[in-house]
Amino acid sequence: MKILRISLVAAALAGAATFAAPVWAHAFLDHAAPSVGSTSQGAPGELTLNFTQNIVPAFSGVSMTSASGGAIPLGKARVDSSDPATLHVSIGHKLTPGTYFVHWHVVSVDTHHTSGSYKFTIAP
């Protein structure tokens, strides 16, 4: 009887945690292309950022700088029509070898704002 009671309490707690998780959900960067911290041989023509939750495009954006701090021209961030948790941003010109920093800010569909940055490198 005691084992059954413990099992029921554990199941109830697990169920409560499952339902409570979305209340605290925020859109965080899950993965990106170019990948976070990666080194690639070629220059990308686009950034793709995948988040953990659907995002609101009107309140979300991306900027990029070179290692020296110079702004890299980007197109307007757009949400993927088949995956509203993914942002695509075209890069305005051909990148040269070096390190680049991607800065993002998004508002998720639950209205929470998150932001962050990561770097990637293009090999010579």
Question: Can you give keywords for this protein?
Answer:
124 residues; alpha+beta; Immunoglobulin-like; 1 helix; 9 strands; 15% helix
Structural overview:
This protein is α+β, with helices and mostly antiparallel strands. The chain has a single domain (about 25-120), classed as Immunoglobulin-like. Helices cover about 15% and strands about 40% of the residues.
CATH class: Mainly Beta
- Report the C-alpha radius of gyration, rounded: 20 Å
- The total beta strand count reads 9
**Class based on secondary structure composition and strand pairing:** alpha+beta
List the secondary-structure elements in sequence, H or E: HEEEEEEEEE
Overall pLDDT: 86
Uncertain parts: 4-23
Entry summary:
The chain has one helix at about 1-20, and strands spanning about 30-35, 40, 45-50, 60-65, 70, 80, 85-90, 100-105, 115-120. By secondary structure, the chain is α+β, with helices and mostly antiparallel strands.
Produce the secondary structure layout:
Elements: H1 2-20, E1 29-33, E2 39-40, E3 46-51, E4 61-66, E5 71-72, E6 78-80, E7 83-90, E8 98-107, E9 113-122
